Amino acid sequence: MIPKRVTLENFLSFGPKQHLEFDDGEPLWVVGGPNGVGKSAVFDAITYCLFGAHRGGKGQGMDELVRHGENGFFVQFEFEFNGVGYQITRNHKLKGRPTARIEQQTAGEWKAITGINSATDVKGWSERTLGLPMEAFAASVLLRQGQADEILNATGSKRLETLKKIIAAERYEALSKRVHDTATKRATKLEDLQSRRDTMPAVTAEQLAEAQLKQDAAAEDRDRAEQEKAHAAERVSFAKQWAKHEDARRQLAEKVAEADARAADAGRIQADHLRLDELNRVLPPLNQLVPIRDTLAATETEQAAIHQQHADTAAKLAALTTNLEALRLAVATHRDAAAEHAKEAKRLQDEIAGRKKFLTAAEEVAELDAKVKSFDPMLDRQATDAAAKLAEAGAAGQTARDAKTRLDTLLMQAKEDQRRLANVEAGVPCSRCGQVVTAEHAEKERAEIAETIRRLTADLASVTTQVGTAEAAVKTAKSSQDQLATVIRQRDQSRQRLADRQRDLEAFGGTSDVAQLRHELAGQTLAAEKSEHARNEERTKQERHEAELKIAEPTFKPMEKQVREFAARLQKLDTQLAADTATCAALASALSAEWAATMAAELQQHAHEQQRLASSGVAEEFRLWQQDATRREGWAEQLREIAKQIAAIPETARVPVVEAERLQKVATDAAKLADTAFGVTHDDLANLTRQAEALATLKKQIAVAEAEARVHKRLDELLGKKNLQRELVRTAETEIVRLANDTVRNLSNGDLSIELDHSEDGGDEAFALKVRREDSPPIDVAYLSGSQKFRVAIAVALAIGRFAAGQARPLECVIIDEGFGSLDKDGLQATAEELNNLKQHLRRIILVSHQEDFTSHFPVVYRLHKGENGTIAEKERRG
């Protein structure tokens, strides 16, 4: 990971946005400045971007990172990893949800990485990509103030975990787990196959031969049963034919017997048939003639009564019609008179409305003319004077503000000069005059700057007062100008309205004399009232006649309807009488005189006789008696043909159909049993054959599974923790110790060396270190002095970075936050030289220190200092 740029805004001591850019032209950078200025905040921003954590703990107290008085902060970290540029941005608000995103640089453009939707997603992505959690990152890349020796003090298991992350051991662990899981599955599979083989019964050749013989015998039995089933089905077909022929023969014999019986009773059948024909002929006209003949007298009596009712009702209707026409005429006459009076009243009201508008306009013209004459004639001159005063006051205010801005700039520059000279030391060039600084020279420069600041402060106070006075004058002039503008606007509006009203009067074309207009308006009002009174009288008369008409009209239609109903009834009775008389004559002409004189009682007796003969079936008997002679020979021929067909049916098949079907079911059931028996023997043979084949296949599978289980078991042992993984860890820690020794010897002038403590060479531990001083016995790092432990910690961290630079996940950088305070002058010198030498091994080294004696050894420094709105970062490059 190569840091490229850190951006902070309102983060801890930082206010407006500050950028710390680490370009590739210089691999080693220093962040310097006094204590408390926010140096460590730069690296809090890095860890917060990557892991959402800071010195206070993961995800805790994030609101405390917001600069006092602000409502949130913004941090951004740009870096390179494995040759790819990334940029992580986080925003945190005191009110609202924090946001985070990751972008990747592609073809010079930043594009968001998909699937990153929350702060938790960013943390997971950082751990997966860098291969380090927050703790391992702090132990091997970022050595925080007071925590540089964290990896030295960690437990053996914690050191092992950190080392595994650095060498990307999870790839081998994952491979080992997959191989172990596969080996377990192979062993389980082999056990399953062997268990199946042990429980599977053996099949002999004798068993197979016996099963084949049973299947052949069952096949023969099945074929015989199928033949018997077919014979039984044929017998059922013959039995059905025999039953059909027997039924037809019996029906023909019955028909012949019935024809013989009809021939013996022929006389009775003929007499009954003649009497039924006569009754069928005369009874229909008699059934019509007798009722019509009885109702003719009643119809004639009803006709005379209806004639009288129709004449009386028609006279009443004529009188009502005359009265209604007179009332309608009176209503129409009064309605027309009322409409004429209403029209005249409407015309007068329209004239009155126009006269009122003209009167209102004339009154408004008089009022507006008086109002216009009331305005001061000097208003325009006063407005011109007010504008001149406002321009004069504005120019004075701008002059005072320009002076204040100039004095603010000079005072800020003087204070900045005072800050730079506050800690200046003798022997360096003066930033103001270029001369070499002496104590007297520095004191003189400080006194001159203090006097300049005092003088500028006094001038600034005076100018500030002038600005206030000028702004007050502008406010007063503006207020006066606004008041005059309001009055002028009112005057102009009144003038315009007066002109508009005068044009309206001219458009009306009447007099503008208000008194004359009022007199004319009173006369028109009186005329309108008279017209309305006359209209009301006519409407009253109209309403009285309408009420009378309303009472009379409802009786007209019912009376008119009654007259129409009487006329229709008379016409219907006339038609009925004529029709009934004609019908009686026609019906009587179709009968003999004896039958025409039949009375109602005789008609009922004849009807009973007709019903008796019809229900006796004599008509059908007569029809059959007539057909018997021609059909008898045909029946005899059919009997002879049926006898031939019965003779063609086998004697054994001349049985009832039920019996034949019973025998068929017996044969069918026997065939099913035979087929089932064959299926059982077939399945037995197939099962024995499959068992024999499955046993042979299983033995082949067991041989293959045994070979696979041996190979995976051996591979699982080689890739496990005690072999390949252990070897990777030991190789890594040996190489890191070798690289650390190179550094620690330079940092201690050959006094210290590091070696591995193999007495703690356990499977779950790593990186147990001993330190040897010159030729003395090695001791645990816990017993080193503070400066010695710091040198060892720096050496180990740098060695981890150098080692990781060549691994699958190259770190290629180290960040050391303070910690140099425990070194003496020679230690600082040696540390600086060694860090400069390491530039050829690591692409980025970032140091944090407030010690000028230390930072002066490096070419590029970011100076942090407090500004008026927060910490300011300024890059300083030395020759």
From TrEMBL:
Q: Which residues form the Rad50/SbcC-type AAA domain?
A: 5-194
Which keywords has UniProt assigned to this entry? Answer: Coiled coil
Q: Does the keyword Glycoprotein apply?
A: no
Q: Which SUPFAM superfamilies match?
A: P-loop containing nucleoside triphosphate hydrolases (SSF52540)
Please, which domain of life does this record's source organism belong to? Bacteria
Q: Which residues form a coiled coil?
A: 208-235, 688-715
- What Pfam families does the record tag this protein with? AAA_23 (PF13476)
Question: Can you say what this protein is called?
Answer: SMC family ATPase
